Amino acid sequence: MDRAASLTQTVPGLWQFGRYFWPIIRPQWPLLAVSTLALLADVGLRVLEPWPMKVIFDYVLVPARGDSSARLAPLGAWDPALLLTGAVVAMVALTGLRAVATYWNTVSLAIASSRVMTQVRNQLYRHLQRLSLGYHTRARSGDLIVRVSGDASRLQEVLITAALPLVSSLLTLVGMVVVMIWLDWRLALLSTVTFPLFWLAATRFSQRIRSASLQQRKREGAVAATAAESLAAIKLVQALSLENAFADTFAKQNQRSLSDVVETKRLAAHLERTVDVVIALGTALVLWAGAQLVIRDALTPGDVLVFLSYLKNAFKPVQNFAKYTGRLAKAAASGERILNVMETQPEVRDRPTARPAPILAGALRLEDLWFAYEPGHPVLKGLNLSVQPGQQVAIVGPSGSGKSTLMSLLLRLYDPTAGRVRIDGQDIRDFTLDSLRPQISVVLQESLLFAASIRENIAYGVAGVSQAEIEAAARLANAHDFIAALPQGYDTPVGERGTTLSGGQRQRIAIARAAIRQTPILILDEPTTGLDRASEQAVVDALRQLAQGRTTFLITHDLSLVPQVDHVLYLEQGRVIEQGTHGELLAQNGPYAALFRLRSALREEPSVVSR
Fold first, then answer.
1. Of 49, 103, 395, 440, which sees the most CB atoms within 10 A?
2. How many Å apart are CA 230 and CA 246, to the nearest integer?
3. Can you count the helices (H) and strands (E) in the chain?
4. pLDDT at residue 607, rounded to an integer
5. How far is CA 107 from CA 60, 79, 112, 153, in A?
6. Rounded-to-5 percentages of helix, strand, coil across the chain
7. Euclidean distance between CA atoms 346 and 339, whole angstroms
8. Torsion (CA) 579, 582, 587, 589 in degrees, nearest 10
9. pLDDT value, residue 67
10. What does each C-alpha distance from 116 to 109, 111, 236 come to in angstroms?
């Protein structure tokens, strides 16, 4: 999505962001109403601020020099000392009242914007969680993190530090222009001569500032992505001595980001200095013309003072725009990046007619199933399979044959290019995702644990689980004994990604997490890969108990786990080459039999899963 890049389109871009999130903004109307009333009070007080000074000049100072013509009714009859005291008190009162109005304006808007942006961030995070696996495969996690945290925070900051001062200044400008025209339309007209120069300068630089700001945000996303990737794989990075390579890549991206920051600041500074020159030109014109009018008694010195004060404040909207245009541009870029995510539709989503899935029995059927990540390059080609509830199916074959892709289709992480996946006779696309996926448990090759306690890791995603149920799941997974031996037992925190536990311990906790869900369908994706013999046996025993009574799919290169399953599916290049029982495939003496004999020869002590 390529949104507006010019000054006149930056604000509409932010307006589009506000319109998109209007359902979140609307409930904050009481705070916004307080902020608006305080803003109007602030504007009115700003318009009144120069008038006490006019009274002092026209009714106190000028008469003191003997210029009686300046003593105009009705204040002309008042005692000068009284007028001076009243004017000074009025100056303090106006400033104090404006401070109160500004306080309530800022605080009310800050509270409202904080609430709104908190909900925006929540929605953005939830939407990211629901985007299809294909989107996350293409995106960089660090860049997405910047969008959730940095971009949302920047928008909130701009509301307070840029948008609010600009709105206040623009409303003040309108009020001051009206008063200037009332005082003297000729001088008011002269005051507006330099406004087109302001607009020309701001328009000229704002597009370049916004482009540089958007590029800067992209660079920052790339920097964050590189850091996130390297830190997530720090063990591998250190093992392969890749620290310097990643550091060099990070440094280059960081330098590009710095260049974009410098360019943005340079353009903003150039615009500010241009505005300063135009302000000086406008002030000089008004001062020269106003002095001429005073000499001819067409205006009083106080009128000229009011004009100069108004002119200085009238220039502030554009001056502030010059000052904050970089922030506004960055806010527009941040809003664009958030909307880019929010407007991305999940490739896998509920059909309009989708309904909640009932409690599934676990009968599964593949009907001429095709799938391609890229058009024209199918990964699965016409798969057919029928599985009865409670059966165990092993899916084997060389790497890249489509085994894990098939399991992703069962989970509806992707939808098939052609064909169907049916569970209990129903196309799984007829079920809502929120009712289908909780009925399928998964144990992956590298089970991910979260930076929380072991108790929380086991119970994730299942509400209202008791300690007894957690311990029962851990016992089934052969994990209770080692958990109980830890310093804090089930309350022991694990490091991010479970790095404080061994591979076998992580797998057994993952098995406990699958067991506590009590789902009718179970997917095991290389559950014993990378484990030592003792850990593997403990995991195999746990898997045997976990699979009892569940429709189970076992993806594995370890064929010693296969002989006792009900059905074997042998894949090559996305096609079913052979299928049947272990004994039937050995009797056929085909690719599966050759692979099994080879793996058995390489394994000194093959362990067989018995049921």
1. 395
2. 7
3. 25, 10
4. 43
5. 39, 42, 9, 17
6. 65, 10, 25
7. 14
8. 70
9. 42
10. 10, 9, 41
Residues 447 and 507: beta-carbon distance below 8 Å: yes
Judging by DSSP bridges, how do beta strands 377-387 and 364-374 pair with one another?
A: antiparallel
SS (H, E, C) 76-117: HHCCHHHHHHHHHHHHHHHHHHHHHHHHHHHHHHHHHHHHHH
Instruction: Give the pLDDT confidence score for residue 229 in this predicted structure.
Output: 65
Question: Left if phi > 0, otherwise alpha if psi is -120 to 50, otherwise beta: which for 89?
Answer: alpha
Tokens standing for 165? 């001062």
DSSP 286-338: HHHHHHHHHHTTSS-HHHHHHHHHHHHHHTHHHHHHHHHHHHHHHHHHHHHHH
Q: For residue range 388-419, what is the model confidence (pLDDT) as tens digits?
A: 999 999 999 888 888 889 988 998 988 999 99
First and final CA of the chain: distance in angstroms?
Answer: 56
Tens-place pLDDT, residues 224-243: 766 766 666 665 566 555 66
Which among 408, 396, 593, 536 is positioned nearest to 544, based on CA atoms? 536
In three-state secondary structure terms, 423 is: strand
- Would you list the domain boundaries of the chain? 11-342, 364-602
> What DSSP designation does 384 have?
E
Q: What is the pLDDT of residue 65?
A: 39
Which of 334, 336, 331 has the alpha carbon at shortest distance from 164?
A: 331
CATH node for 11-342? 1.20.1560.10
Per-residue H/E/C for 165-221: HHHHHHHHHHHHHHHHHHHCHHHHHHHCCCHHHHHHHHHHHHHHHHHHHHHHHHHHH
Q: Is 4 helix (H, G, I), strand (E, B) or coil?
A: coil
In SS3 terms, 550-594 reads as: CEEEEECCCHHHCCCCCEEEEEECCEEEEEECHHHHHHHCCHHHH
For position 64, what pLDDT does the model report? 41
Residue in 415, 334, 297, 403 with CA at minimum distance from that of residue 159: 334
- Retrieve residue 242's tokens: 């890749």
Q: Which residues of the chain have pLDDT under 50?
A: 1-7, 64-73, 605-611
> Locate tokens 């909130």: which residue?
156
| Residues in contact with 279: Cβ distance below 8 Å, sequence separation at least 6, in sequence order | 194, 312, 315, 319
Phi then psi for 432, rounded to 5 degrees? -70, 150
Q: Using alpha carbons, select from 330, 17, 11 the residue that is nearest to residue 157.
A: 330
The values of phi and psi at residue 272, to 5°, are -60, -45
CA 554 to chain centre: 36
| Closest CA relative to residue 71, chosen from 63, 82, 79, 81 | 63
Specify the pLDDT at position 221: 67
Counted residue by residue, the chain has a size of 611
* Domain with residues 364-602, CATH architecture: 3-Layer(aba) Sandwich (3.40)
Give the count of beta carbons closer than 10 Å to the beta carbon of residue 372.
17
Task: Using DSSP bridges, classify how beta strands 392-396 and 521-525 pair: parallel, antiparallel or unpaired.
Answer: unpaired
Asked if 84 and 56 count as a contact pair (C-beta separation under 8 A), the reply is yes
- Residues sharing a CB contact under 8 Å with residue 128, sequence separation 6 or more, in sequence order: 144, 148, 341
Q: What is the pTM for the complete model shown?
A: 0.66
DSSP state letter for 495? -
Beta-carbon contacts of 522 under 8 Å, excluding residues fewer than 6 positions away, are 440, 441, 442, 443, 514, 546, 547, 550, 551, 552, 553
Closest CA to 56 of 48, 66, 68, 64: 64
